[in-house]
Design goal:
Elements (H helix, E strand, L loop, with lengths): L15 H27 L3 E2 L5 E2 L11 E5 L10 E5 L4 H9 L4 E9 L11 E10 L3 H23 L5 E3 L2 E3 L6 E4 H9 L18 H9 L10 H13 L9 E7 L8 E2 L2 E12 L2 E8 L4 H19 L7 H7 L5 E7 H9 L14
Parallel strand pairs: 1-5, 9-10
Antiparallel strand pairs: 2-4, 3-4, 5-6, 6-14, 7-8, 10-12, 11-12, 12-13, 13-14
Helix pairs in contact: 1-3, 1-9, 2-8, 3-9, 4-6, 5-6, 7-8
């Protein structure tokens, strides 16, 4: 007979004691899903479902896809065709826009290898939506509205004050988000003039020397082997992100163009892209941008990203030729991907992402 004085191991997520402890947050999760769908329906979005298995995932440097081998029933016993579980439904949803859809949304499971922390799971839920004929400012308005909707849903489900929380950090989802450019944030919190470190605005990989010197001048540890991108993320992690989304959410916008592989560049300033990230309580919740619709420029970016993948990892996913063909028909559009589990975490005050998952990856 089990000892009633012992606690179940953490990997027994199904244990009555563990499940009972999580149930209030899981009920708030259900309420949040209803609130998100109600907002999207009121805005005229069509909810779509795209395949999670794809030929070519994105090639973001810091995102590793899960590979699989797909065997066709009449193909014999040879090696299966290489496929990937999607890290985002982005490519498939853009193809739907190219096919004539105008406002689409998807709440789906996505997979990323090598991710596990209090804020990460190898399998998680993403809310992704697109508006044809819009730019990234429309996504900013959507994000603010969704924060309010989920905050109210959690408030009703848990009978609390409706604030987002992580540790001691608090954010009011009903307050209009602060809008801050990346350059302003780096200047304010790290005392670095970011754009002055980019000599060639057309380069996919700016020379790191100026940014390395600036970071070291502010006491930020960087190495000689760090790229410009490595140093940028170190500055963000150490000096900038801890200040974002405090009291009110922060929309951090106008990212350097070399950090926006699928985003349209800002008219009049090729150093920047029409991309933003949404933060609350120091946690990144969403990534959005005005979509790049030029297939020639997109191919150039894909080829540069692929070369970097080969250099770093010894191999790289294939380029999605079907997406490049679809870009020929893609209207001016904007899209956003939001980490739904993280938002529920903050709305319920959970310390760990597994506290708001019915079944975590074990």
């Amino acid at each position: 007979m089990a000892n009633p004085n012992t606690h179940p191991p953490a990997h027994h997520w199904w244990h009555p004691e563990i499940l009972a402890r999580k149930r209030p947050r899981l009920e708030a999760r259900r309420a949040a899903i209803k609130a998100v769908r109600a907002y999207c329906q009121a805005e005229g979005f069509i909810e779509v479902e795209t395949s999670a298995i794809q030929r070519a995932p994105g090639m973001e440097r810091h995102i590793r896809p899960l590979a699989l081998s797909l065997r066709e029933p009449l193909a014999g016993e040879g090696a299966g065709a290489p496929r990937f579980l999607h890290t985002s439904p982005e490519f498939a949803m853009k193809k739907l826009l190219a096919g004539g859809m105008e406002k689409i949304v998807q709440l789906c499971r996505v997979w990323r290898d090598g991710e596990r922390s209090p804020l990460h799971q190898p399998e998680f839920t993403m809310l992704e939506w697109y508006r044809a004929g819009a730019d990234y400012t429309a996504m900013m308005d959507d994000c603010a509205a969704l924060l309010r909707a989920v905050g109210k849903a959690a408030q009703r489900a848990l009978a609390h004050d409706g604030l987002l929380r992580r540790g001691e950090a608090v954010c009011d989802p009903a307050t209009t988000p602060q809008r801050l450019t990346v350059a302003e944030a780096v200047r304010t919190y790290a005392n670095i003039e970011l754009l002055s470190t980019v000599d060639d605005p057309t380069s996919a990989a700016p020379a790191p020397d100026k940014l390395r010197a600036a970071a070291r001048g502010q006491g930020i540890h960087v190495s000689e082997s760090d790229t410009w991108e490595d140093i940028f993320f170190r500055i963000m992690l150490d000096r900038v992100e801890p200040h974002l989304g405090m009291g009110a959410a922060t929309i951090l916008y106008e990212y350097p163009a070399n950090l926006a592989a699928l985003a349209r560049k800002k008219p009049g300033d090729p150093r920047l892209a029409e991309r933003f990230e949404l933060y609350a309580c120091g946690v990144e919740l969403a990534n959005a941008y005005s979509e790049l619709t030029d297939p020639v420029e997109q191919r150039t970016r894909f080829e540069a990203d692929r070369a970097l993948h080969v250099k770093l990892y010894g191999s790289a996913p294939p380029i999605d030729e079907d997406l490049l063909a679809a870009l020929e028909c893609l209207p001016p559009s904007a899209g956003c991907a939001l980490g739904f589990d993280r938002l529920v975490m903050l709305a319920t005050g959970a310390a760990d992402i597994t506290d708001v998952l019915w079944s975590p990856v074990v």
